[in-house]
Specification:
Bound molecules: adenosine-5'-diphosphate
Order of helices and strands: HHEEHEHEHEEHHEHEEHEEHEE
Shape: elongated
Radius of gyration: 36 Å
Strand order of the largest sheet: 3-2-1-6-5-4
Length: 424
Amino acid sequence: MEVEEALRERIAGMERRISNLERLVRVSLMLNSTLSLEPLLETIIQVIIELTETEDCSIMLLDEKTGELRFRAARRMRREELEQIAVPLDNSIAGWIFRENKPLLIRDAQKDNRFYQGVDDKLNFCTRSIIGVPLQVRGRVIGVLEAINKRGDKEMSWEDVNVMTALAAQAAIAIENARLMEELRMAYEKLHELDRLKSDFISIAAHELRTPLSLILGYASFLRGSATGQASEQLDIVLQSAMRLNSLIGDMVNLRHIETGEAQLELGIFSLNDLVRVCLQEFLSLIRVKQQTVGLNLPSPPLMIEADRQKLHLVLGNLLSNAVKFTPAGGRIEVLACEREGKAWVAVRDTGIGIPRKEWERVFDRFYQVEPSLSRRYEGMGLGLSIAKGMVELHGGRIWVESEVGKGSTFVFHLPLTQSPGGV
Ligand code: ADP
């Protein structure tokens, strides 16, 4: 009879262990799939209370600023209380577990001289027994998990410690993941805010700069009309610099419009051949000064496209300006246009300094320049290509570069011949 009784008890014990294990597996699956911290902590507490048959469970995490353990979750505390109660690392059971990185089972907490009375006093609670295990991630302890007061007349056991250790390992990783996600979210938010501030700054700065600049341009060109000799040369420099400043402000405004989605196409039908000729014309004097040669290969009859002429003018202007700028004296600049596969294709080719393979994509990033800006030989802000890319993509087109260092670069873009109504 006694044997039978003992056998039944053993079977019951095994059944309990199996059901605990099943529970653990289910919880670990859940822990691995949840990223938001609060519900996660609540589930951990709930499961531990059930499996260890205790009155409460607390999760404490190290507050790196104060060097104390702070409650993150506990059933016996209200949310506001959690934040206010801290446990010191010195003279506390949780502190001992944290520092020693070892589990602890205490059947009579009140008699243990490490017991910290502060929490019970604040909550009007009486802690009798405690099991605590460290929460650690990759060998680093981040907090402590404690189960408090065994229910009924049972005693805390090492089996409970095993259950908690298994859960603590899962919980610590899940807590750390959720914490990293939270940090990432905050970093993204900050980045977003910075981006918005930058965008606001650009629009305010551009607006504030434009008014005095148009006065400078107006007065300088007025004076230039009547000036002679040295004064006229000096006024030319003033005018050129003011115009350059004007185009830099224009770049910033254009980029902002692309980024905020404010840029819109003003469509018209025009000859691409004509646009290419007009753009090239604007660079001829510069090309002559650098003794570069020019090649032009345009389709016949002229290719008519439906697009935003002003924006394509800007694209071509930026590509030509770079081609002239990054090609040494005596080099060659070529512009080709054609129709292929129902699209208009344009290529601007130069025999300049070239771009290393790994930079082919990055040159289209805003403010990106192959040469670090402080040691630069070429002027510019690194905006031209990102604007060109934005404008081409607004047309539903694509732009890219192929290049060989020391030999030259070819910038190619294509766009649909017509824009479908309602956008692309
Ligand atoms: P910026 O010319 O004002 O620097 P861009 O956005 O137009 O800005 O160009 C970004 C960078 O790409 C340039 O600083 C340069 O390093 C590289 N790049 C652009 N066009 C050429 C080219 N034709 N040949 C060589 N490098 C070029």
